[in-house]
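step: validate -> pass
step: tokenize input -> pass
step: predict -> running
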Amino acid sequence: MEEIGPEELMAQEESARGLAALMIILDAIDGSTEFGYADFIRICVGEDDSEKDFLGFFEIDPKEGLYRHQLPDGIRSSLTRAERNLLGKHPSNNLSKPVLPFPFTMDDFKKVIRWSIGQGIEIPIDEEGLAEVIDEKIYEQQEPQLVDQKLPLLEQRIEYLRRWFKTQSKFTAANLRSARSGTEGARHMCWEWVVRQGLTNPGGLFKGANQGKSAKTKAFVEAWGRLLIEVAK
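step: predict -> pass
step: emit ->
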């Protein structure tokens, strides 16, 4: 039996510690919390990662989930038995099914993380992205509280944006004031939140004509501009 060198042993121990720390984070999240394709992208997929060849083992189907690569028969027949064994592993033993279907729960996700590590495949997790997704889901699950409808319409809109801003960990007053801030990214995320809350539906506070060629409404853009001024004070 081949001996493990000190460097490889240290790497294995570090990997085990990293997995333990990661599982503590994941275990703190309600196992029934549901996620979808967009959440998986924010949590696991980097800017330069390919969805067609994710980590060299998977393919991401936005509608169905995370699949193992399906190799053409010609390529499969040229592989060694050990290679076919590695590429044929699947948590359900059914290669026609996704390794992780969309949508999925946190319990599903943890099972796949453990399984992938057991196969020597490390699915990366952006802890900051995970925190942002969880923050948003906690906020969405809360009973929505209406703003004071006696306020002017613009002030009501700004109040909703204030509530969104308070839930954010990535975007702060400091980086929104910065010349190289995440203002554009923050505005897009805030707009998506407004849409999910139904505030752009007919009769909603942010319903109305779009701002130029933007998909965002004038009502939203005006309220966002006022929020930035308020944050900069």
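step: describe -> The beta strands are 34-35, 58-61, 65-68, 100-101, 104-105.
step: cleanup -> pass
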